[in-house]
């Protein structure tokens, strides 16, 4: 059975996992542990545990598409003072972490409850925070402050770092990468969901050492404060700063532009279509219509999974 490892976090991993789970493969998600915003951030601050949000999204993606348990893990409180804004899935994962004593064990128990297909592994089990150095040398600390910038969002991100220092990768994540037949990086926010995984000691090394086909899935839209003005080649260039050149075997890029009305909505958020300007640079380029037919410019899970499985 083919072994496929997806590295990332957030909505991007959720999307690709939803599509890939329909195939007869051994599927593993290696998920970022640097989130610090919203319900996840509040729980992280109060309990000192690793953030549960990205793992929760992967659990939901790999669970059956219907059922009350799935709905419970997605439920968000919108009333009251103490629970308002909290996601029930995050609370359950936090409780499981307290019971089991380890993040990886908490995720495994949640996977049993949700009847998940595949494995979800934290990229690290060590607590650390994401930071960024901007082009004017300003330092921004915490994932949420990069994701939702309070600084001048027109400034480019020069470099990412982890504080207090880059932790070691979770051994299970390294093992899965080394044994994979395909490694899928992305899609997802470049600086807050994708590259943070590559800052973990042992992850870039494992990707390079693995004999798997290494596939990067480029985003469809840019993100204000992170990738403003980026074309597909800029995404790859930034990724290679942390992964190394000559590592990627394939770059998958959407070539279908969203409808004009949808583009107008994204323009309000200062987001733009990522032009598929790639030229062969040591990797094979796969361009296809990967756009979902919804009110958001996102990848269609089935189209993306089919493209990946055909590589």
Account of the protein in words:
This protein is an alpha/beta fold and 311 residues long. It has one domain (3-33, 123-309): Rossmann fold. The protein is 39% helix and 16% strand. The chain is built from 13 helices and 10 strands. The protein has helices at 10-20, 38-47, 53-61, 68-74, 88-100, 103-114, 143-147, 171-179, 190-198, 203-209, 232-243, 260-268, 301-309, and strands at residues 3-8, 26-31, 119-122, 129-134, 139-141, 157-163, 182-185, 213-217, 250-254, 284-288. Strands 3-2-1-7-8-9-10 form a 7-stranded parallel sheet, sandwiched between helices.
Topology readout:
Blueprint: E1 3-8, H1 10-20, E2 26-31, H2 38-47, H3 53-61, H4 68-74, H5 88-100, H6 103-114, E3 119-122, E4 129-134, E5 139-141, H7 143-147, E6 157-163, H8 171-179, E7 182-185, H9 190-198, H10 203-209, E8 213-217, H11 232-243, E9 250-254, H12 260-268, E10 284-288, H13 301-309
Parallel strand pairs: 1-2, 1-7, 2-3, 7-8, 8-9, 9-10
Antiparallel strand pairs: 4-5, 4-6
